């Protein structure tokens, strides 16, 4: 189970607008800058993102078919802004992991409660 589409719509309209001004500055948050697959338009999506040894990982709380995920996968690259720094990322890889190993322990437990088992792994350039 991933979070319902109604919640995703609410987040796009309300929560994302509220969190955008600070999402790129706080630990565990960031903004992914990506281009639309069809429009070519630039989008900035605030999300929870965590560092790995060679890049970043994002829990796909709305599943792997979310528009931003599809955009990043189609382009093969994006930009991550987190804690005041910009990073080019590439080679987006979908990972299914029921143990939720890529996530920090507290986050792992929460994701278990909502049934999230898919992640997007991004390599830093």
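^ Assign residues to that structure.
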């Amino acid at each position: 189970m991933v979070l319902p589409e109604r919640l995703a719509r609410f987040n796009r309209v309300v929560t994302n607008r509220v969190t955008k001004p600070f999402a790129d500055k706080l630990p565990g948050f960031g903004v992914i800058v990506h281009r639309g697959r069809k429009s070519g338009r630039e989008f900035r999506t605030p999300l929870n993102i965590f560092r790995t040894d060679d890049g970043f990982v994002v829990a796909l709380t709305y599943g792997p078919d979310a528009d931003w995920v599809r955009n990043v996968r189609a382009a093969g690259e994006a930009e991550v802004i987190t804690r005041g720094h910009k990073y080019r990322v590439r080679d987006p890889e979908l990972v299914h992991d029921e143990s939720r190993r890529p996530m920090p322990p507290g986050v792992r437990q929460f994701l278990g409660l909502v049934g999230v088992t898919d992640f997007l792994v991004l390599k830093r350039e």
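The helical segments are 5-23, 67-75, 105-114.
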